[in-house]
Every structure is written in structure tokens, then in C-alpha cells.
Amino acid sequence: MPFVILSGLSGAGKTQAIDAFEDAGYFCVDNLPPQLMSPLVDLFRIEGSKVHRVAVVCDARGGEYFAEIERVLDELGAAGVEYSLVFLEASDDVLVARFKETRRRHPLAAHDTVLDDIRRERDLLGGLRERANHIIDTSGITIQELKLWLNEEIIHRGRRQSLTFSFVSFGYKYGVPIDVDLLFDVRFLPNPFYDLDLRPLTGLDREVRDYVLQSVDGAEFFDVLLPLLDYLFPRYVAEGKAHLTVGIGCTGGRHRSVTIAAWLADHYAAEGLQTTVHHRDMNRG
After folding, report:
1. How far, in Å, CA of 21 to CA of 2, rounded?
2. Res. 160: pLDDT tops 60
3. Element (H, E) at 22
4. Residue 54: CB partners within 8 Å, gap ≥ 6?
5. ∠47-52-57 over CA atoms, to 5°?
6. Which of 56, 113, 268, 273 is the most exposed place for a label (fewest CB within 10 A)?
């Protein structure tokens, strides 16, 4: 069971880092007292547990409890628990600027300046930093770059990400779905609605599928669309996105969009991707 421990300086990005693990399907706990690490591991090792990956944040917010973290790590190692310790840090000036921007109180705040608190925390974490498997300086990177690094180097390293691609057909006359990531308008394709024999059917029927897919515009559309999707999908995976929704819209959501969404779902499922398809408006009207 992958067990990742995130720690480091306050303001270095641990909250954003744990979000990346949560998006990837990890069971995540923020601000976990070190003494609860072993019971947590034991809990998830119970036969029948549905949890296969765990990430926790342990840092100075734990107060007196946090002082025991190195001893707890020794106990985990002695018990044969394999863990990865990720330590996040940043320069003093960057951390000071972040605390000023957010107006958050430093966990070690006393009557000193924020800079004094940061330096005291840096001394406190010196031993822990030396034990880290990964040290990340977030001074000059964005949140997105941090998440991308975590996805590439830790979360999905050596394996393919489990990402679901959902294709949704809809009718513009009923409104655009609010949760789509990519949107394609196929109202330019020949409309089966104007063929009285095809009008009662849906885009799942063979006659309608042939009408749409075998048209000149239909063939040319896929010649343009597929290379675009083939270019975009791996980049969404690298970004760490867990679910991508592609909306396909026509006028009523009964014929053209249904055919295209169903074809795309079948096409990418055949390539080994996890796909779902939903025809929101197919049975309206």
C-alpha cells in the first residue's frame, strides 16, 4: 500500500500537494498527529479494506504531538512499513510574502516576527528534512507546476493513470451542461430530423449512425477531431485530472450528438481508456 507522508515548512504548499493526491484517489488526512500513523496503516491493512493508497500531512500544526514524528518514523521502519516522505520548503522571503498575502497566522507564532517564526520552524524540521525521499522547493513554481511534478514523479510514476473520459450528448435547445471540460458543436452535420423516416429514431440506431457518419462532413469532422483529442488527452492525464467530460451538442440532442458521443466512447474504449457515455436529452420531445 503506497503510504506518502507530506511535511515541510508552513506556507510551502502542503495543502495544494495533498489535493493532488486526493484527486488521484488517495485516502488523505491533513494535520494528522504522528502517533496516529501506525494505527491508520493497521486499519487499512485489514482484509477487505477498500483503501489501497494513503497520503497524510504531518507538520508543525501538530504542536507537541509533532515533536514525536521522527520517533514514529523509526517505529514504522522497524515494523516494515514502507513510506515515502515528501518535504516541501521555500525561501524565507517567499514564505513571508505568502503569509502576508493570506494573512494567516504562522503555527509557531509567538511574539516574534513572521520571519523569526519561519526560521524557528526551519530549525525544528532540520532532522526531518534529512530523512526525506523527496525535497521540493516551491519558491519559483506555481501550484499547477507543483501538482504536475507530484503526478509525474510520485503519484503516477511507472504506471498509467486511472482517468475516466465521459462523453455527454445534449441538445442546445435545452441548455449546455455546466460540468463539461471540452465542448464540441456538431450542428453543422446533416440533420436526420429532416428525414421523416429517421426522425422517430435516435443516434443509437444504425440508420441514423450511417446517415451521420457516412456523410462527407462527418468523415472530415473525425479527421480533425481525433488528432485534437489524441493530443489533449495525454496532457490532461499528465496534469493529474481524474475525470474529463467531453460535451457533444446538436439542436435537440437526439440524433447527431448521440451518434458522435457514442462513437467516440466506443473508439477510445477500444484503445484501452476508461470511458462512459450519457445521452442527456435523447428521449426528450
Report:
1. 11
2. no
3. helix 14-23
4. 1, 2, 3, 4, 26, 27, 28, 29, 40, 41, 44
5. 120
6. 113
Q: Is the pLDDT of residue 35 over 90?
A: yes
* Confidence tier at 25 by pLDDT (50, 70, 90): confident
**Hey, what's the cell of 273?**
481508456
36 exposed, middle or buried (CB, 10 Å; 0-12, 13-18, 19+)?
Answer: middle
Q: At what angle do helices 114-124 and 92-102 cross, to 10 degrees?
A: 120
Number of DSSP helices (H) and strands (E) in the chain, helices first:
10, 9
In this predicted model, what pLDDT tens digit does every residue of 60-90 receive, in sequence order? 988 888 889 999 999 999 988 889 999 999 9
Give the SS3 label for residue 108: coil
Confidence of residue 162 (pLDDT cuts 50, 70, 90): low
Residue type, 83: Y
Q: Which residue has the cell 446538436?
A: 250
Cα separation of 192 and 96, whole Å? Answer: 63
Distances (CA, A) of 254 to 168, 191, 213, 282: 12, 10, 15, 4
Alpha-carbon distances of 44 from 35, 36, 54, 126, 191, rounded to whole Å? 16, 13, 9, 30, 54
Taking residues 115-137, report their average pLDDT. Answer: 93
Residue 112's pLDDT is 76
Beta pairing partners, 171: 250
Q: Is pLDDT at 257 greater than 90 in this prediction? A: yes
Mean pLDDT to the nearest integer, 161-189: 91
